[in-house]
Amino acid sequence: MMEDEPISFLPQDEPRLICSYTEVFSGFAAKLTEEEVSIIQQKDALIRVYRDRLLPLATTHSPEFLGLRVGNGFWNVSGLGKGVIIGVLDTGLLPTHPSFGDDGVPPPPRRWKGRRREAGHRAPPVDDAGHGTHTASTAAGNFVADASVRGNANGTAAGIAPHAHLAIYKVCSRSRCSMVDILAGLDAAVKDGVDVVSLSLGGGSAPFEYDPIAIAAFKAMEKGIFVSCAAATKAGAELCLQRRPLGAHHCSFLDNFDIEGKIVLCQSPGLTGRIDAGIGVLAFGGAGMILMNPKPDGYTTFADAHVLPASHVSYAAGSEIISYVNSTSAPTATIAFEGTVLGSSPAPTVAFFSSRGPGKASPGIIKPDVTGPGMNILAAWAAPAETRSTMAVSTERAFNMVSGTSMSTPHLSGVAALIKSVHPHWSPAAIKSAIMTTSDFVDHSGEPIKNEQYQKASFFAMGAGYVNPSRAVDPGLVYDLGVNDYIAYLCGLGLGDAGVSAVAHRNIRCSTIRNVTEAELNYPSILVNPQDKPITVKRTVTNVGKASSTYVAAVEVPEEVVVVRVRPRILHFSKANEKKSFAVTVQRKGGSKNGVEGNLKWVSGEHVVRSPILIPAKSSASFATAFAVNS
């Protein structure tokens, strides 16, 4: 990153410059040797050098599952997202897919500065992988009747914001995304004038000042753009298991067994390789396959389009099947296809692959922020030229059922677009607050949301809860944040003047501003870690509901473990956009060392504004501890 023209700093013997960035930060990407980097680092205009790296790529019924229905409610109020532009950075899209038809979609708003898909323009960023087509249609795919994957989940496919506009930036190949290309996509999206950026990308966590995507997202936020990012897909459990590499070798170990005409019992290989396992079974004459979860994967099962009759069962069900097989010399099995079953319980749940908090860059803030649909999501797919069973192509209008945090991200991007359509002047922080404080922390049966083991999910698994779009459009109160608030927070993290300046794109002297800790940031969630003394944090809410309204505080925590006081306990508002502040004091009780999860609610006659409260175990060096959770 440099503040001056890059060409004068680069060797002139051959072309080195890849691209320049002007929107998300002032800088450029170039091919340089280590020696050349060392020379450039001595230049006064240089702020920081970032090495390029590759990042991995981390729905007929999901809108209905989220309470979105045609002709009424949030979809009706928001006009299905009309006038909002969602920038999707991914593998491109298949522009001829009916999910991207323009029926009912108005022309792009005048503020749009990018290209349009019109005759005479160069070819669009065509998707040759499917991932980008899937995520784009999940966010804003138009209505397509009779969509299904091999007859499953049949219905009308639609994205969360079906009449929003899509701006597509191809920054990824089939499986990897270059940091250089991601930044170029972000730079173009900001320049073009998108309202929402959707990033279904994985990759490790780095300190903010060393994370170019975080720096670019800061600049996007400063320009009023909402950025939705995947929390990444957890691989830790996979890495510590000793399994046969079913996916890599198509079950080649089966050549030592006679499986002709038999149903084969296999352990699920996890996130990938499940369909390949079936290919291996079929190749050796197997009639069917039962995939059993290992214990860490619990009850998370995938609805894949297999090449043979197959069933994916939980660890508990698999254990029962193994017990039965071991109890008889002639076990039998039948796979019955019952079609799509709606309303199963418990739902929603947190899948095993969903990454858990806390975040490494800022462990004092609850992460993830919120959860959304990401399991067995049906959406548009880019049919490849060759036939591959792993593409799960069902018709000429290809759809696929895919799972991952990549699928959850565009759901949240679509929700943000709907909110932006109704509240065009809300800041990204206000939109995030609305989504978080109105989310559900109980499932559809009224029980606490569970994880993959069917145990109560912690806030480090689900964040504030499961997104509820219909309530998010009218949250009552929001916890807003501006650029200066984030700068004070970055100073409080200890990034130093150079680090904060790199993120904020300006010279910052932390000694001249009031630094705030993570707990003091005006965030919709609260994480404090009192030891022997109470801790008090301040929050400020903005009234975005009725001008005249009153809210009363309600605290839900295990009272035998902690005491939580809120002052004042009543907030009176007399006008729209009025701000009121309050203080939350947390103190451990009776020498308790347990961790605690609970909620702070501001309740009026029409709204419940909920913030999760998390108190880690006393003197815990890590936040990943057991909690005495309030039910």
From TrEMBL:
Q: Which residues form a coiled coil?
A: none
Entry GO terms, CC: extracellular region
Which stretches make up the Inhibitor I9 domain?
Answer: 13-57
Q: Where is this region: Disordered?
A: 98-135
From the Swiss-Prot or TrEMBL record, what is one GO molecular function term?
Answer: serine-type endopeptidase activity
Q: Where in the cell is it found?
A: Secreted
Q: Which residues form the Peptidase S8/S53 domain?
A: 81-450
- The active-site annotation reads 90, 131, 406
Q: Where is the composition biased (Basic and acidic residues)?
A: 120-131
Looking at the record, the residues that make up the Subtilisin-like protease fibronectin type-III domain are: 520-615
Give every PA domain span. 254-321
Q: Where is the composition biased (Basic residues)?
A: 110-119
> Could you tell me which PANTHER family the record lists for this protein?
PROPROTEIN CONVERTASE SUBTILISIN/KEXIN
Q: What is this protein called?
A: Subtilisin-like protease SBT1.6
To which species is this protein native? Ananas comosus
What are the leading ranks of the lineage? Eukaryota, Viridiplantae, Streptophyta, Embryophyta, Tracheophyta
